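Let's practice the habit of predicting before peeking. Look at the sequence and jot down your guess about where helices and strands might fall. Then scroll down.
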Amino acid sequence: MPISNNAFVRATTLLLLVGLVALLGIVGTTIWLVERSQGYFNEVVVARETRSAATDLRNALGDAETGQRGFLLTGNEAYLAPYNSAVEQLPELRERLGAVLAPYPQLQESLAELNEAIQYKLDEMARTIELTRSGDRDTALAIVNSGAGNDSMQNTREFLISLVDSSETRLDIGVADQRSAATALRWVTLLGALVIVGVVGGSAWTVRAYTRELAAARREVEAANQSLEERVQERTADLGKANEEIQRFAYIVTHDLRAPLVNIMGFTSELETSVATLRDYMSEREESGDPKFAEARLAATEDLPEAISFIRSSTRKMDALINAILKISREGRRQLKPETINLAEIINASVSAIQHQVTENGGSVETEVKVARLITDRLSLEQVLGNLLDNAVKYQEPNRPLTVSIRALPAERNRLNIEVTDNGRGIASTDHERVFELFRRSGSQSQPGEGIGLAHVRTMVRSLGGEITLSSELGVGTTFRINLPRDLRSYLGSNAK
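Done guessing? Here is the structure:
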């Protein structure tokens, strides 16, 4: 089933959300398990420290008691070495056990009793040792045999043994908890990895499927474009043939119109000569009372010359229009010759042709060319630029110096823009399109012309594969913009230079 763009976005978003949730779950669970493992580790450390402190304290008390009894039995000071060593260590060991049990308030009372029992036993051992040294060994043995010290020592051993057993139990539980946490962490990581792998796999599959469909769609578009290009070429060829037929028809029609027009102009000249003879004849005759003679004189001297003048004016105008149509027809039938040209040279040559007309009135021409070379028809481009510059001079504002600017700038899709700007009299907004029509002119007709210049320019620009537009404001000036391909051959579909 094809994947639409919306379905692809939804599927990708869903997979990303699942991956994000899985990642957050893994991170959160991992942090929680690590914290728990740290807690279990801390409990294990405390249990080990408690067991170690209790064991060391119990061993030290045992060593002290062993040294005391050996000394009491033998009276030899050498047996007091374990006692003396233990007595030196006991304050530190008791303090260490107190520090380990400090976080447990429930043990503080038992700890106090333990310290009392230890102190009682230490006092007893110190007293018996002093009595033995002073020679009163019987009294020392009597104190030992009384059992009070033994009871105290027994209570101390029991408390320390229970403390060691409790620590062992806590150690076993802590280690088991650590193993459970490690196992849980391992499973969470494994399941999270599987989820992420699934998300990545799903994303990869979705992207691959969507990419395949995009590639297929691109191939279809390319095939459609190829077909469209072929159809466009066929239509272009048909339009070219139709255009050629129209141009041929226009040429034939105007050529055929010229023959009767020449006859009319010839007979008009003969008629004008005859009327001149008749006018001279009627002028030499004396006035008679015949009213028909007066009418004939008026016709010969005024009416006929005026009519012939109108006929000659009309034939001249018609001759100019026929010439204009023939000019456009010939230009349309001219074979374009694409060649590599230096655009700056073409523009400078066109500017040189009007430079004296501009500068003699204090005007100036500025050029800016950012496109070095292009391939086009040199003659057509020269005619286009020449016509636009001639119009700028022809329709300049008489109250200010003429300023003309020509810019050639690169455009998208391997094309370029040529802008011709002047500060002339401008064109009304209603005439922006009309000025490109044949035999149409804008504004006051103070300058001679037939209204074919801009129509001819548009025809040539379109033959070069481009388009021409304008923006203008009355009293401000006009800007013509020409968009052309950099390589005319791509437009003509030819590889010839």
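How did you do? The chain has three domains: 5-210, 239-332, 335-492.
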